[in-house]
Each structure stands twice: as C-alpha cells, then as structure tokens.
Amino acid sequence: MRRIHLIVEYDGTAYAGWQRQANAMTVQEKLERAILKLTGEELCVSGASRTDAGVHALGQSAHFDTESRIPADKFSFALNTLLPPDIRVTRSEEVPLEFHARFSTRGKRYRYLFHAAPHAGALTRNTHAHVIYPLDVERMRAEAQDLVGTHDFAAFAASGSVVKDTVRTIYRAEVTSSGSEIRLIVEGSGFLYNMVRIIAGTLIGVGSGKLEPGAFRRAIASGDRLDLGITAPAHGLTLMEVFYDPDDLRI
Q1: Least enclosed by CB within 10 Å: which of 132, 160, 174, 177?
Q2: Is 52 a catalytic residue?
Q3: Nearest-angstrom CA–CA distance, 104 and 242
Q4: Contact 117/128 with Cβ under 8 angstroms?
C-alpha cells in the first residue's frame, strides 16, 4: 500500500464544494471516479480543506492510498486525462503513510478578490465579488492588520459551527489593489468555517464606510458575530496553498 499526495487546482463554479455529497457533484467525487477508472480501486480521497460550493483552489492538498504500481509522479498526468477541464492535478508524489492531507497541515493561504466598479465584469463574474460602490483600500489595509496574531476568533465562525477551539493564529493579512481589482491575502494556522468570507465581507463594510474602523478588534474582544459584516460570496475565494513541515512529506 502506498500513500499518494496530490496538489489539485479547480474552478469551483460547477461544484457543490469539495466534499462528496449524496445529491450533488463535488470535486472529491470527480477525483475518486477518475482514480477508479485509472486503478480499478474504490477509495476515498482526503482533502486538506472542505471548500464550499463555488470556492476555487490553486493549491488544494489531498491524498489517497493505493496498491497501484503507477509511478507516483505519473498519477497527475494520468488523472488529468480522465478529469474534466475545470479540475487539474498539478503535482503527485508518494508520501509516508503517516502523512495526512488534513491533519498534518501547518497552515493555509487564502485569497479573496473584489471587483469594485459600477458594472460587474464579464470575465470576473465567477472569480471576484462585485462591489458596486467605491472602497477605501487604505482603510481596508489598516483594518486587516488587526487580524494578525493569535486571537480567539469565535465571532468569525458561521452560525451553527460546532468547533470547540476557536483560537487561531493569523500570520499575514494584506490588502492590495490594481485598477478595479482589490486583493486580500490571508495566511494562518487554520481557519473557522466561513472565516475568510466573513473577513472579506467585513472589509467591504469598512472600505465602504458602512462599518466603523476597528470592527475586527471589537469582534475579537466581544466574540459577537454581529460586530462583523456580511459573509462575502463564495466565488471570490480561492485556496492558494496548504503548508506542511517538509519532513512530513519526505519518504
């Protein structure tokens, strides 16, 4: 038995998220079907992040166990002949059996894209959240810095979340702009359900003047979701990279 690690890129527009569901197509199911065709094995592909419907990935990490003798680095080429064009395996490698795509993570990087313009873009409709009013990028940039550090982010979880430990460490939170595009990059030890989308929605509120600056500080102190802004649309979000200790990947 071997454990194969994949890096997967996908456009999430057509899928009900990463995780297999009974009544909707997901990225996980597409990968498992492709592996079945390739190896004849019915197996489970474990992903590092259970991205929501419409969320994209450039660096989703996943693994599966196989008895196939296909060279590890060739799985990417073989699977890409069986996958739809909106899902691509960009790397495949053999890793120790102790490695786990989800539980071995040391952190993740997400990107959120805004299109701030009077009219929605034809080419950005599936990748950027359209904001019709002007946004103050400098105000958003300053607000984002209040996320950096180790905090209790209980207020940043979607309602109904049942996770017990809501303390996370944010290493980086940057807002940049180019023309009508505004880009948020967030890196952290881990993220609560919908946390990055709540961060993005709050930055829309602060940047538009609908929320007073200091919203993140207030929410961290109070633990109250009402101190934050909307949950931004899923399609603006992309999982960029999942981080591991290099030794955990080494055979």
Answers
A1: 160
A2: yes
A3: 10
A4: no
